[in-house]
Prior knowledge:
This protein is α+β, with helices and mostly antiparallel strands. Helix content is 25%, strand content 34%.
Amino acid sequence: MSDGKGKSSTGILVLSVFCALLAGFIIGYFTANFQASRVVRQACAPVSPRPTRSDNGPGFSEKKYVIYFSPGNREIFEELGEIPSGNGRIRGKIFLDDRPMAGLEFSLILARGMKTQKTTVLADGSYEISIPQGKYYFNGLLIYEKNDALEGRILVNVVSKEENVAAFREDENASLLKKYSQLKAKIGSQEAAKKLSDTFGQSNPSRDEFLFTVSNTPFTMDDFNFRKPIEIIIPINNSMISLKELKVVWSPVKNASTYSVRFNRIDKDGPNTSYSPAFSMSDIKENQIDASDIKNRNDQAESGDCGIRSRLLPGKVYSVRVIAFDNKNSIITSSSLEILHELEFMLKE
């Protein structure tokens, strides 16, 4: 009997260590998006890089919109070297509220703290950048803005990238946990945890994710879209509300076919704040979800492996994000991209 209990305890301990390694792996990937005092402790937590600004004379500012980045190397975006022109070409279009953003001056931010030469968006929203032929890793945009036209807008491409990453990470977690169970049955819990731990070390991303090649044929970037964020009307920010009364209402989005709502739990420990995903509701047809919908979904929610999913719990603080999709399931826009500025509320007993 004692031997069985010992083995059980060992298995639980190893599984706990494995879960911690899994969370740590994802944490290392996402933490670069946050201020130094912020900590992300759970996989799949949606995060968003904030545009940084620097003044360059009266009426002029720079904004860096980071979409892809090298984990742990955020500082490379502080001082950007310039790539000379060349015989290769990068093309694309930029839109503001679905209108060509003619006259906008910008550069592309590439890997290792480099930027392309400045270019100007034409009347139809198109641009072309001269660059030497070769392979590059794309990071984001450096906007040279004179009139604050982008103020209050979000870069939809960041939302799309986050949604893809979140879906991938969730699937990856489930796949790894399944693999752990299979390995445990064959080689035991300790060896299984060690094998997967080694796998983490080999697969941990250390460079930018978006690789592209510039050759004799011009490379075409996806369109960049800046749009108004969705305004969440109910609940009121920093309010206290019971689960049975919790309702989410937001401003309707033109041409939206469906919406998704994301709930994240916010836990504060001294100067540190962690964000962990609670649950999401998808394929919402109207610009609201009522209390009964939320309660029914919450009653069905399970804790899940390693806390990847959890219920809405009384006495906890949560944030809300709403995302709008068109009839092709492409993202139109979302509520605030800045997780530090998302609407927050506390569930009371």
